[in-house]
Every structure is written in structure tokens, then in C-alpha cells.
Design brief:
The protein has a five-stranded mixed sheet. Strands 1-9-10 form a three-stranded antiparallel sheet. The chain has helices spanning 2-5, 21-24, 30-39, 41-47, 62-66, 129-142, 158-163, 175-187, 198-206, 228-240, 271-280; strands at residues 56-58, 69-70, 85-89, 99-109, 112-123, 147-150, 167-170, 191-194, 208-211, 217-220. It has a domain at 54-242: 2-Layer Sandwich (Nucleotidyltransferase, domain 5). The protein contains eleven helices and ten strands. The longest helix is centred in the middle third of the chain and has 14 residues, at 129-142. By secondary structure, the chain is an alpha/beta fold.
């Protein structure tokens, strides 16, 4: 309809308007739009910029990810008083997928809330799942943890974890939900990586965002590629900045939030900012950051 009737060659009986939110509704404050573009340029361009969605785009660029890397640092050691969270991506050991684990925590970096990636573990196939689970459980306990979260594919290993004193929790969201939730955390620089994470960077860059029927998005890796490490790290980020389901239909005339994006920084300010934060939710408490080096092998 748009292609057929927009412009001077269109049917004069059809009125086709094409303009950004700022052009058509100046009452929406620029700060709201700017924040949306900061979090997710692709979605914001469609929502506020009157641009049609492309059927497939990249998830993240290497430049964005590398801005999150603390050069010259290695995996971190456990510090007392910090609440760590873990995510694991199980595998059978018989295929080509790795079994991965990531441990992270929430922290304050000056005025920003960030997720610090403390350590990443990867065990490549072939391997014995029972041996891997035993090693993971020892690492989790060494970090003061008694539970770990992963996707539904880990259900067959729940009893293995339980045998070693660890509870395996099945995530309440899909992998795509997690990737989309984490996207603004990456683009805003709210993730702190240690140096030497090339496998993670390569996997994140290879991910593709696809728009299906009804505008539903999916994020997945290309055929014959893997996202085991990327999945695990984004899972840990999700645990440190959980998805909030709050939504408001309107607030101070600012508009409609039917699918709120996750929060970046819980700042108060104008009514628009407060509505934005309310719709997006605020993450958990933020203990101080840790430092130091640690092992990445079990």
C-alpha cells in the first residue's frame, strides 16, 4: 500500500503520510526518543523514525562489544559480600555444541549500573556430561552459589546437579527474549568484559535478528555456527538485570508502552523519564565491582 500510493504517482484518492514521531507528534519529548535509539537503534527507527523493518539484520557489531572490554584484565576472583549469579548452557557431549558456564554480578560504575562478567567456562565435545556437571558444581560452590539457571534443554541434567548439591533452574524466558533484553545493555556499554574473550565476540557478531510474521523478532545463530558462549554470557546478564513485565498504557500524556524495553539506568527526572523507568523496571541491588585474575578452566 505504501509503495503503491506514496508520492506523486499514487492514487490521489488515497492519503499516505510518512513522517517520524517528532514530525507527527511533537508532544513526545526528544529525550524519550533519544533513549530508545540508544537502547535499540533498529527498533527505534521503526517505532519513532518511520523506517520499515529489514527482514534480517545483525545483532551486534564488533565495535560495540569491544567497547565493553576492560583491556589488560583477566577473569576475576570471588570477592566476599558480592551476590554472584550463574548461567549454564548444557550439551550432551556427543554433538558439536560446547557446555558453557558464566558467572557475573551487578555493580556500580560511577553513576551507571553495570553487569560485570567475572568468568566464562567452555568445555568442548566430546565429553562425559556427568564429569562436566561435577566440575561445574564444584565451581559454583567455590563462588558461594547453590543454584544455576539454564534453558529447558538442561532438564535431563537436573538430577545430576541435585546429586552435587546444586539446583538447576529452568529459565522462564526464551533465548530470543534474553538476547533482545541484553541488547540495550551492550549498546549502552553497561556490560564489563575481561580481555581475551574472542570466542564470545565472534559468536555475538554472527547472531542475526529476523522479523517474522506479525513483526515478531527472533535472534539466532547462522547454520553451522554456534552461540554457546554468547548464550551463556547473555543469560548471566539477564540474571543480573531481569526482565520486568510492568507496562503502562499512558502516563502524563507521553504515549503507550505496549512492549516495554528493559531498563538501563534507573534515573528519575521528567514525567516522561519516570514513565519510561516505570515501564521498563529497575534491576536488583548493585554491590561493588571486583577485580583480580582467576582460572577459566575446571
Amino acid at each position: 500500500m505504501f509503495k503503491k500510493h506514496h508520492g506523486p504517482d499514487g492514487d490521489p484518492r488515497c492519503i499516505v503520510a510518512h513522517g517520524s514521531t517528532s514530525d507527527l507528534n511533537p508532544s513526545i519529548r526528544k529525550s524519550v526518543i533519544d533513549r530508545a535509539y540508544e537502547e535499540d537503534p533498529e527498533s527505534a527507527a521503526a517505532e519513532y523514525g518511520a523506517e520499515f523493518r529489514q527482514p534480517q539484520t545483525g545483532y551486534l557489531t564488533r565495535e560495540i562489544i569491544e567497547r565493553c572490554v576492560e583491556k589488560g584484565t583477566g577473569p576475576r576472583k570471588r570477592w566476599p559480600g558480592i551476590q554472584y549469579r550463574a548461567w549454564t548452557d548444557p550439551a550432551t557431549g556427543a554433538g558439536q555444541d560446547s557446555w558453557t558456564l558464566c558467572i557475573a554480578h551487578s555493580a556500580k560504575d560511577e553513576s551507571r549500573d553495570v553487569t560485570v562478567i567475572d568468568t566464562i567456562y567452555e568445555s568442548k565435545p566430546p565429553f562425559d556430561p556427568e564429569t562436566i556437571v561435577a566440575g561445574i558444581c564444584r565451581e559454583l560452590q567455590a563462588w558461594g552459589l547453590s543454584e544455576v539457571m539454564g534453558d529447558g534443554y538442561g532438564k535431563p541434567f537436573i538430577n545430576m546437579f541435585r546429586k552435587h548439591g546444586i539446583t538447576y533452574k529452568v529459565a522462564p524466558v526464551t533465548t530470543t527474549d534474553i538476547y533482545l533484553h541484553c541488547l540495550p545493555q551492550w549498546t549502552a556499554g553497561n556490560v564489563v568484559l575481561f580481555d581475551g574473550t574472542e570466542t564470545l565476540i565472534r559468536q555475538l557478531v554472527s547472531l542475526k535478528r529476523k522479523v517474522g510474521q506479525g513483526g515478531r523478532e527472533t535472534v539466532e545463530h547462522p547454520k553451522n555456527k554456534h552461540d554457546d558462549v554468547a548464550n551463556t554470557v547473555c543469560g548471566a546478564i539477564y540474571r543480573c538485570t531481569p526482565i520486568q513485565r510492568n507496562a503502562v498504557s499512558s502516563y502524563e500524556g507521553i504515549g503507550v508502552f505496549t512492549a516495554p524495553r528493559p531498563s538501563l539506568v534507573g534515573q528519575r527526572g521528567t514525567p516522561e523519564d519516570q514513565a519510561y523507568n516505570y515501564a521498563h523496571g529497575i534491576g536488583p541491588g548493585h554491590p561493588r565491582r571486583s577485580g583480580g585474575n582467576g582460572s577459566v578452566m575446571w
